[in-house]
Write a structure and sequence with these properties.
By secondary structure, the chain is mainly β. Among the domains are: 59 residues, Cadherins (Immunoglobulin-like), CATH 2.60.40.60; 102 residues, Immunoglobulin-like, CATH 2.60.40.60; 101 residues, Sandwich (Immunoglobulin-like); 98 residues, Immunoglobulin-like (Sandwich), CATH 2.60.40; 104 residues, Sandwich (Immunoglobulin-like). The protein has five helices and 50 strands. Strands 1-6-5-2 form a four-stranded antiparallel β-sheet, with no helix packed on it. Strands 7-13-12-9 form a four-stranded mixed β-sheet, with no helix packed on it. Strands 15-22-21-18 form a four-stranded mixed β-sheet, with no helix packed on it. The longest helix is centred in the C-terminal third of the chain and has 29 residues. It is rod-shaped and about 250 Å long. It starts with a strand and ends in a 21-residue tail after the last strand. The relative contact order is 0.05. Keywords: Calcium, Cell adhesion, Cell membrane, Glycoprotein, Membrane, Repeat, Signal, Transmembrane, Transmembrane helix. This is Cadherin domain-containing protein. InterPro entries: Cadherin-like_dom, Cadherin-like_sf, Cadherin_C, Cadherin_CS, Cadherin_N, Protocadherin/Cadherin-CA.
Length: 758
């Protein structure tokens, strides 16, 4: 604001010349209007720049020169202050360090604000930003300046607020007012007034057993809201922590890490408790504490255990079912599912497990036992826990079975057929009949014997013998097929158990025929070693039956098959011999050139190996007298003179034959009434044959069927041979007698009947 002296106006209105305003300073703040003499501001005037702000007044001095006439005037222009400057602080930010232990009411001087303006426009007041801990107290200096002191109203707590940010505002008295601000940063200095603290008063942590040594269990973190050394923490065990716990776990004093120090075993100790202290490093050390519980988590590291409390072995094979033979206990040191165990035995055994109490099992017989099938059992007890993965253990016990005599001796066959060649040597080994008994010891020791049975008043023990120890069967006599063809009896094998068990087997002895009987020629009849004399008419026709050779063989069918051959013949073109039925027939009529005497030697040979044979010599004499021959087994009456010698002979022969027939019938009746003993049979004679049924001899030979023996026809009646017919009941023996002419009845004693079996 400028105050221009009034005189200048007047000067301007009276001046006739030129006015000049001399600049006092380097700047021309004012100019004068030469025409009107008005003084005006040409440049902005800053009172605070021109004058010291402490001076109450400020003048701007200049000289005005007027020409024509020249005049000099001194002009002072007073610069009036306006509130054009705001208060300001020399430092925008002020830092204060105050200990948190400072008592309330403590005063802290603050730098005052500066305002270039003067008077009422200068700093008149201070304001502090709103807070709970500090207040301002305004002071007035001697020069009237205003300054402020910072007063601590309440105690500071660094841990709650370590830094207080305040705004100090300086306010001038101008209109409008102007302000200036500065930041006051109050840093609260720490005092060790806080003890370290843990997040929790009690920690519970799980650790797996068998954790590797050095593995981290937990990292405890205690905090101290103090700072510096007051907040540096050292960890340690309290006196309440057991030595065993301190031995198992290592506590790092710097960072609070707790690590495994030794191998942890759940089965030794399941829970560890400790108390950890956190202490700061302040001058007056403070400390905090917490409790830590370490729970050991079970790991399936223990195999289940089996304990055989009782085991009964051996046992009898007839042990009843549900009999307890073993008591087994199982255990597992682990816990939870790891400690729950299951006991098993193989499924394919006649035993089962029965739980009797907690972790106790009984092994009982579930099925009948049979030592002969399985003499012993290897019973494997397998126990498995329910952990993951499951662990198991097993133990094998051997159960032996004692034998019980529960098996009868067994022969490999139920029926034995033994073929024995006749004419065996007495004492010959026939067969070995060995039975088997699956029992043991005395229960399997077998004794063999023949079950007594009589055949034809003869005991089997007289015919056969068996070794009681090994079952070897021996023949005690020589067998003759023609007398005894077979035997049927039983052999028993008995063990030595108590009570003894036995079984028997049927033995069928078949006597095998040997070719030990030579054929016997029964027709034509002849004395021992004599030649058969036959006479035939010379006029015999071709094909006429001259003679028939009949031979018998008492061997079996195969060996008794007879074939006939000429051994010697006078003229081979005159006679033929049927090799099967022994018939000798003429092949042509006799001629005058043929010799009167013909000699025929016939051999009868059986079918055995080697073949046996018998021979007969027939001497044929041809006669001129006409005699009609019989042929082909046809019985025709002979024509002869009643007064001839032949008739006389026939009458005598007929009487003899009738007498012989009567004797034969009587003998047959006696034989049938008696039980014959085959062993006393006599060898066959040349004069008679006794044969059983089913033997057959064709034509004029010995013929047999199931009803009758037919007549034996002899073609040559010149010898006075008669045919005797003897019908007998079916199945009886038959006697055929050949009576030579001229022997009379007395000759029949030489031809007593003999028995032959074919």
């Amino acid at each position: 604001m400028l105050q221009i002296i009034y005189i200048l106006g007047k000067l301007g209105s009276t001046a006739v010349g030129t006015m000049r305003l001399d600049v006092i300073a380097s700047k021309r703040y004012l100019e004068i209007n030469k025409d009107t003499g008005e003084l005006f501001v040409s440049e902005k005037i800053d009172r605070e720049y021109i004058c010291n702000s402490k001076n109450p007044s400020c003048f701007l001095k200049m000289d005005v020169t007027i020409e024509n006439p020249i005049r000099l005037f001194n002009i002072e222009v007073e610069i009036m202050d306006i509130n054009d400057n705001a208060p300001f602080f020399r430092r925008d930010t002020m830092h204060l360090d105050i200990s948190e232990s400072t008592s309330p009411g403590e005063r802290f001087s603050l730098p005052n604000a500066v305002d270039p303006d003067f008077g009422s426009n200068s700093v008149k007041n201070y304001h502090l930003s709103e807070n709970l801990n500090f207040a301002l107290e305004i002071q007035t200096g001697r020069d009237g300046s205003k300054f402020a002191d910072l007063i601590l109203k309440t105690s500071l707590d660094r841990e709650k607020q370590a830094v207080h940010n305040l705004i100090l505002t300086a306010v001038d008295g101008g209109v409008p007012t102007r302000t200036g601000t500065a930041s006051i940063i109050v840093r609260v200095l720490d005092v060790n007034d806080n003890a370290p603290s843990f997040e929790k008063a009690k920690y519970v942590v799980d650790v797996m057993e068998n954790s590797p040594i050095g593995s981290l269990v937990i990292k405890l973190n205690a905090t101290d809201v103090d700072e510096g050394s007051n907040s540096e923490i050292v960890y340690s065990y309290s006196l309440y922590t057991s030595e065993r716990t301190q031995k198992m776990f290592n506590l790092n004093p710097e960072n609070g890490e707790i690590r495994v120090k030794e191998m942890i075993n759940y089965e030794d100790l399941k829970l560890y408790e400790m108390e950890v202290i956190a202490s700061d490093k302040g001058p007056n050390s403070l400390s905090g504490q917490c409790k830590l519980t370490i729970q050991v988590t079970d790991m399936n590291d223990n195999h289940p255990e089996i304990s055989i409390k009782s085991f009964q072995s051996p046992i009898k094979e007839d042990t009843p079912t549900d009999t307890v033979i073993a008591v087994v206990s199982v255990s597992d040191k682990d816990s939870g599912d790891n400690g729950i165990v299951d006991l098993h035995i193989p499924d394919n055994m006649p035993f089962k497990l029965r739980e009797s109490s907690d972790n106790y099992y009984e092994l009982v017989v579930s099925e009948p036992l049979d030592r002969e099938k399985v003499p012993e059992y290897d019973i494997t007890f397998t126990v498995t826990d329910r952990g993951s993965p499951p662990l198991s253990d097993n133990e094998t016990m051997t159960l032996e079975l004692l034998d019980v005599n529960d098996n009868v001796p067994q022969f490999p066959q139920s029926f034995y057929t033994i073929r024995v060649m006749e004419n065996n040597a007495p004492g010959a080994l026939l067969s070995s009949l060995t039975a088997f008994d699956p029992d043991l010891h005395e229960n399997q020791y077998l004794v063999y014997f023949i079950i007594e049975r009589e055949i034809a008043n003869t005991s089997m023990s007289m015919l056969f013998s068996i070794n009681p120890e090994n079952g070897n069967l021996y023949a005690l006599k020589t067998f003759d097929y023609e007398i005894e063809k077979e035997f049927l009896f039983h052999i028993e094998a008995r063990d030595s158990g108590s009570p003894p068990l036995s079984s028997n087997v049927t033995v069928h002895i078949i006597i095998v025929d040997q070719n030990d009987n030579a054929p016997v020629i029964v027709s034509p009849w002849r004395a021992q070693g004599s030649v058969v004399e036959e006479k035939i008419p010379r006029s015999t026709d071709k094909g006429s039956l001259i003679a028939k050779v009949i031979a018998l063989d008492t061997d079996s069918v195969h060996n008794s098959r007879i074939t006939y051959q000429f051994l010697q013949v006078t003229d081979a073109t005159l006679f033929s011999l049927d090799q099967y039925n022994g018939e000798i027939r003429t092949m042509r009529m006799f001629s005058y050139r043929d010799p009167r005497h013909q000699r025929l030697v016939v051999v009868a040979k059986d079918n055995g190996e080697p073949a046996l044979s018998a021979t007969v010599t027939i001497s044929l004499t041809t006669m001129e007298t006409a005699v009609k021959a019989y042929s082909d087994m046809t019985e025709e009456p002979l024509e002869y003179d009643i007064f001839s010698d032949i008739n006389l002979y026939l009458v005598i022969g007929l009487g003899s034959v009738s007498f012989l027939l009567l004797i034969t019938i009587l003998v047959t009746i006696v034989i049938k009434c008696q039980k014959p003993k085959p062993s006393k049979a006599a060898p066959p004679s040349r004069n008679s044959v006794i044969s059983e049924r089913n033997s057959t001899i064709a034509d004029s030979t010995l013929v047999s069927n199931d009803a009758y023996w037919y007549s034996l026809f002899l073609a040559e009646t010149r010898k006075g041979k008669l045919v005797v017919r003897q019908p007998l009941p079916k199945g009886s023996r038959y006697i055929v007698s050949s009576i030579p002419r001229g022997t009379g009845l007395t000759d029949t004693s030489d031809s007593a009947a003999s028995t032959l079996q074919v």
